[in-house]
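fwd from M.: "can u put these together and see what the complex looks like"

so here's what she sent:
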Amino acid sequence: MTAKQIRTVIIGASGYTGGDFMRLAVPHPQIELTGLVANTHAGKAVADVYPHLRMANLPDMVALEDINFDDCDAVICGLPHGTAQDIISTLPKHIKVIDMSADFRLRDTKTYEQWYGRAHDNANLYDEVSYGLSEHYRNEIKAARIIACPGCYPTAALLALLPLVKASVIATDNIILNAISGVSGAGRALKQNTLFCETSEGFSPYAIGSHRHTPEIEQELSRAADKSGSDTIGIGEIEVTFTPHLVPMSRGELITCYLTLKEGTSHDDARAAMQKACEGEPFVHLVPEGVTPGTQHVRGSNHCLIGMFKGKVKNQLIVVSTIDNLVKGSAGQAMQNFNITFGLKETTGLEQLPLFP
Amino acid sequence: MTAKQIRTVIIGASGYTGGDFMRLAVPHPQIELTGLVANTHAGKAVADVYPHLRMANLPDMVALEDINFDDCDAVICGLPHGTAQDIISTLPKHIKVIDMSADFRLRDTKTYEQWYGRAHDNANLYDEVSYGLSEHYRNEIKAARIIACPGCYPTAALLALLPLVKASVIATDNIILNAISGVSGAGRALKQNTLFCETSEGFSPYAIGSHRHTPEIEQELSRAADKSGSDTIGIGEIEVTFTPHLVPMSRGELITCYLTLKEGTSHDDARAAMQKACEGEPFVHLVPEGVTPGTQHVRGSNHCLIGMFKGKVKNQLIVVSTIDNLVKGSAGQAMQNFNITFGLKETTGLEQLPLFP
Amino acid sequence: MTAKQIRTVIIGASGYTGGDFMRLAVPHPQIELTGLVANTHAGKAVADVYPHLRMANLPDMVALEDINFDDCDAVICGLPHGTAQDIISTLPKHIKVIDMSADFRLRDTKTYEQWYGRAHDNANLYDEVSYGLSEHYRNEIKAARIIACPGCYPTAALLALLPLVKASVIATDNIILNAISGVSGAGRALKQNTLFCETSEGFSPYAIGSHRHTPEIEQELSRAADKSGSDTIGIGEIEVTFTPHLVPMSRGELITCYLTLKEGTSHDDARAAMQKACEGEPFVHLVPEGVTPGTQHVRGSNHCLIGMFKGKVKNQLIVVSTIDNLVKGSAGQAMQNFNITFGLKETTGLEQLPLFP
Amino acid sequence: MTAKQIRTVIIGASGYTGGDFMRLAVPHPQIELTGLVANTHAGKAVADVYPHLRMANLPDMVALEDINFDDCDAVICGLPHGTAQDIISTLPKHIKVIDMSADFRLRDTKTYEQWYGRAHDNANLYDEVSYGLSEHYRNEIKAARIIACPGCYPTAALLALLPLVKASVIATDNIILNAISGVSGAGRALKQNTLFCETSEGFSPYAIGSHRHTPEIEQELSRAADKSGSDTIGIGEIEVTFTPHLVPMSRGELITCYLTLKEGTSHDDARAAMQKACEGEPFVHLVPEGVTPGTQHVRGSNHCLIGMFKGKVKNQLIVVSTIDNLVKGSAGQAMQNFNITFGLKETTGLEQLPLFP
């Protein structure tokens, strides 16, 4: 990289993921935030939308049509699914797109239609797309123009499960993922169930058996299991039980995975596979035996902590994985992918340690 | 009952469960709190230990030796296990004992020793004991002198599972219980991990594969499954996976149960069994399909809400059960058992609706 | 009272104050909730709006026009100001109205217009109105048909200040009230600043110098000071500084009052005046010297705790007053007034002790 | 600075302020943490004490006697008062000391003795000391060997008040400071009142009229008012009312200052004085009129936000100041002073924007 800055536009800057990308981007030495698109807030100062960014020297928010994309090297997309692909498909081809939406995560457009309730109109772009789980798709991310950053839950789940599936140490027919998330996962839109009074002192499951991150986890596990050999494997080969719950905290995601060791495989084998996958990874860490990971220990950072435990039942393996849903689960992984895409050191702008307490 | 009050002593009045029993007992029309034992606080006014009880007209806290048990009809025991049995074994036989400790829950003393790390010195008292899950042991409770109130997690778990096991609608070889609790479950003792700053914005599992409530759940499921016919069945016949997690809230407990329908059994069968078990129960409620129970909707009350859901995986049944750990999980169920024991209306003193928000 | 129930309709049942009145009313031995009006939720079951009331046997929510007010003895009004007076003015005269809105609190209609931004169209009703600060207006409440329940902040402030003003122990020209409230004070309407993620880990002032509860406090202090002798004294005689802040908790209100002792008056005089005012009061309590009241010690109850402290500065008196904003600050005081109005024991239905933790 | 790292030892590394200094120091380009002293944790890995620092490459904790101070350029002291001066007085004179304790804040040793309950045994060191409020003592800090970092409350208070006192726009005889802090201000020691269950849903004042930060604020205001011309002015010239409160959140501090404009001074004058003081300051910001600062908008950062408001009462000025108590109130300001001391860019290692939500 020359000293020349990478001119970056955030589309969907007023949501929590857009806001968190701004927080990380301001001290990033190579990113110049040249445009902040937030249609409903066009014309407002950033501080009017995000008071915690008052001290950053950022341009006002604008409408999409105010951006000249000729002067832009990269787009960070923080839009809802649907809108995301509609806009991404219109961007000039010289622009690298880091998409935090769900639009290009599912490679099978029928699955997309089934779970997201609308047709996928831009299947033709898939040749330029890489799934954006940084640790497992580095080469593909480098080669792609559009990076489909994983969902927050799939990130936490796959960082824990892929090493085990790839090493063939767990059975794939009885995977139960009990997940929890802080309230920021529901976004900044006004909903009764995310009001302070409704959430505080409250814990409840939601979307039981129907959460949209399920097929994404299944797709990636199936690809890893290499059951089909096809590049566009759909869901179905591996099916998981995935139940998310809402917790009275702002940030954090934790998945408790109930797994079964494959016949002839030991806990030590599983731990060794995970340890190997974590070697050299700057952001994924296997904690020692007996240590239980907690969301408070990754808050605000791009780190993922993974713990492995023997269950009381024979051959059971319980794996716990935790991330900050807005960072490693969204804006941080987007920046990690940005760094990979532009050939920067992968940790640039992500050196912050977790904020505790 | 005549108008004569029931003279009741709380031993272990300074813990959260003792405190919550006081809160419920003051407006109870038949209970006269004649003694509040808290050795380390002997001589203090209740308001110095529990400022929220300042407005109640309660006697000062005293040491155990200050109590004349001849003038006492009932003892509520809020002591830690071990100490509880040591003291209960010395009480005069005319006293009804409602024990909130773990000491008389496990009917097999070897299991007790294995999980609680000390010998059970009072197995001879078991003839006078009933397990105190009110809804499933009413007759036994009436006949007993000592009521072993269930643990908080077993209460939430068993209210959800026993109707299904008794009706033989679920498989008993793959029961996974993912549980969470508010911080009050850890008691009022000083521990670093229950400090506000350590817990806030934090979610983490603990005691994976080793929580002491596991054998209690297994014992009761095994008895319900009637696999042995023995009155002192141990653990082992039914084994469960039980993983508790700590949530940044004070009260509330919720268990997400991952179950499998028995061959030839439908979701409707399971729902019918649960519905039947809830009929006429004042405190246990099956919520309609599509409704997800949450801890904030039972807070401060003796109620239990149960939801039943189809998983995405074939034959899977997901059951969610929630209670207030200090009320139905402890002091409230103790009062419910007190009412049963003394022939009072079971809901006396427990008419409070949940406090929301 | 005969055994005959008091047929009570709640108008505005879907807000937090309406919801909390329901919680308290269900176990009240004399109240029969015969109608629950919530226009935007008409036709819904209560459990669909307030899941924590699922176990109560309540009628469905209806629209205003569905109520036959001939069959109604009392109306609890939980509407926003403006709408409240529009509807109350249409109710038949045999109905006792307990109004939790701001519409009949300010006796000077010009002040009302100035602070609430609309004309007061029902000044003619003032003959039937009593201000509803129970402890200080018992006779007036008994004689009135419409009870204007105080705002939550004025309740906490006036219970602390009125005894001191009436006893002429404090200067009235430099009263500074630093107030805080839990988030439920902002109601259940959808606003960005009451989302969990916006409020959690956040503390900030709002409405500095402009909060609508200011003239209400000033009116009552002025009346107590008896500076005018007029029954319709406006604001102006006594002016206060009132600054509210939002705290990341659901319930609770606390006011730190910075006062100056009048020349020739001692701290003991002030404490004696307060002690006298609290004598015999079931819900207002002066805590001993050295004890600091906290919101967590009144939560869910109708109690008010008051603490008195010497400041470091000469002649300074710091008084701290705390209530649950939804109970003593709204629904509980409404019930207390209901009891006064109908000649019931004042504590009926309000016997619950605070919920801690 | 050459590329040579500054070898830095933290004494008192296991407290929250020590922990937060580590969090900030790891990415700091000039700091090499060569020793972490925590006597009660000597021998432990940092991750065993602070799991959120697991991913940092830090040395194990050691006892004080294990440190060779010859190889050390700087000491960060995170000890309690008393112990701090005992140890600082033994350090070799080539070491720069950034002291986060209270031991060298009060220049009058009698005042120290009066408020801290022990003699000040190291008054001789005061020649080498500068008070460490970075924005107001830059030259003194550069010249000193020991930097007495201000208390968290004094930092928030003085950043708001000093510009007004220096510009002579406010009266100094009636300053009321209503302060709040998150729970981390109480430290990591085990105390009942900082348990999650005791603090959650709770707000209460503490140390009314007797908080140790009071004389520190008074000293600095008095020096600014230049009433004595003496370098060792004590308290007394300016007296303030200071009342802290505890809020259920981990981080954050906010002070609502009730002030009176001096005769002949306007709100515009006051705002101009503050604006001028903030000019060029990287961390102190006056927010626009109408904007209310909140703790959630500075969390995790070294920034201070100040808002100025007209009260309803004539000539009243209400100033609101907010910081993160562990950062600008402690570890962050320590690092800012470290940078000043060693001639580094003042913002080095402090570029992180606030973490919101």
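replying to her w this: The interface with chain A takes residues 16, 19, 23, 26-27, 50-56, 184, 200-201, 250-251, 283, 285, 287, 291, 294, 296-301, 303, 305, 351-357 of chain D (CB under 8 Å).
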